Amino acid sequence: MPAVQKELGLSATVSKKIQDKITSSTRAMMGSMQPTQSSKDPKERGVAIQKQVASMQKVQAECVAMLTPTQKARLKQITLQQMGPQAMYNPEVKKELGLNESQTKKIGQIMQASFQQMFGSPGVKPGERPSREDAIKRMQEFAKKQEASRVKTNAETMKVLSPTQRSKWKAMQGKPFKIDMFG
Asked: Which of 109, 125, 93 is nearest to 159 (CA)?
């Protein structure tokens, strides 16, 4: 995303290398997905999906390796901001915050309720083909709904954390960075 590249201060050279790596790996992955999608064997599809995930993780690690330590740290902060409380499932984040099992369970319940609220009632009926304008309108409405849910979920999650954990979580996220997905 150009806004993230700008925030990280990526040079044009590094930005192009990352874009090229992502583009080539995406093409390769799309080509390898064709046989997977036609397979009727769930085990075979599962193995193929695991290989694709491993491949994506490898590409991600290679892209991150092109960054300076400062850029890596800022990217981690932005990633935590975007993930929100969901990041607290990451073992490293959980350990750094010192979350106990009770807190983890409560955060899971908050996340589950949020997910159900967001996706519980789809806006499109099966077989319905909305117009382009209607689809854009629905996406914008969903983005507003998603933002309201994110704010509510973050607030509820912060109540689960101790003051020290809240302070640490805020520090882990760094200065706020807003990404406009529709900009």
From this structure: 109
CA-closest candidate to residue 168, choices 96, 111, 105, 100: 96
Residue with tokens 């990451």: 90
Tell me what pLDDT residue 109 has: 93
For residue 141, what is the DSSP state?
H
d(CA 13, CA 26): 20
What letter does residue 1 receive in the DSSP assignment? Answer: -
Beta carbons of 8 and 74 less than 8 angstroms apart: yes
| Cut 0.85: pTM above it | no
**Per this entry, what is the length of the chain?**
183
pLDDT of 39? 64
Query: What sign for the dihedral angle of Cα 39, 44, 48, 50?
Result: positive
Report CA dihedral (107, 76, 46, 39) to the nearest 10 degrees: 120
Q: Quick check: 70 pLDDT over 90?
A: yes
What's the CA gap between 108 and 126, in Å, rounded?
Answer: 30
* Token representation of residue 66: 């092109």
List the alpha helices (DSSP H) in 66-175. 69-83, 91-97, 101-119, 132-160, 163-173
